[in-house]
Amino acid sequence: MKSYSQGDTAMFHLQLLSKTIDLKKYPFTKLIIEKNITNEEYNDLLELLHVLNQKYELQKEEGLLDFSSLLINFAGMLNEKLHPDETILALKKEGYYHDLMDSFLGILNEKKRFK
User: Fold this and answer.
1) This protein's superkingdom (predicted)?
2) What is the model's pLDDT at position 113?
3) Is residue 103 exposed (0-12), middle (13-18) or buried (19+ Cβ within 10 Å)?
4) How far apart are CA 77 and CA 2, in angstroms?
5) Is the pTM of this model over 0.90?
6) Assigned domain for 39 exists
7) Left if phi > 0, otherwise alpha if psi is -120 to 50, otherwise beta: which for 2?
8) Looking at the 3D structure of the chain, how many domains does it have?
9) Do the domain assignments include residue 73?
10) For position 94, what pLDDT does the model report?
11) For 8-64, how does the pLDDT look when each residue is reduced to its tens digit (9 = 90+)?
12) What DSSP letter does each residue of 41-94 carry, written as one string?
């Protein structure tokens, strides 16, 4: 009889859970799972988003209208496993940092419009 490790069992349980959850409602979570993001990488991303959101709120209060530098910072600091555009869309759809993601999407859409 074959013995299974805790990791095998956890992976099996995760596969079962993923079948019961509508991952279309949780695109960011799905992205994290698909890209095999570790707990540490996930926490680093959330910390990055928290810092950028604080900067965004501060710059907005100061009357700044161009947040391209924050988007560049985000893209530059984003884990290499993740694509900035895809991550921003997933974060927005799942409700993370709504105003910041709207701003990033506006910049990206403007950029695409002029290409």
Assistant:
1) Bacteria
2) 73
3) buried
4) 43
5) no
6) yes
7) beta
8) 1
9) yes
10) 94
11) 787 787 777 777 777 778 899 889 988 989 999 999 999 999 999 999 999 999 998
12) HHHHHHHHHHHHHHHHHHHHHTT----HHHHHHHHHHS-TTS-HHHHHHHHHHH
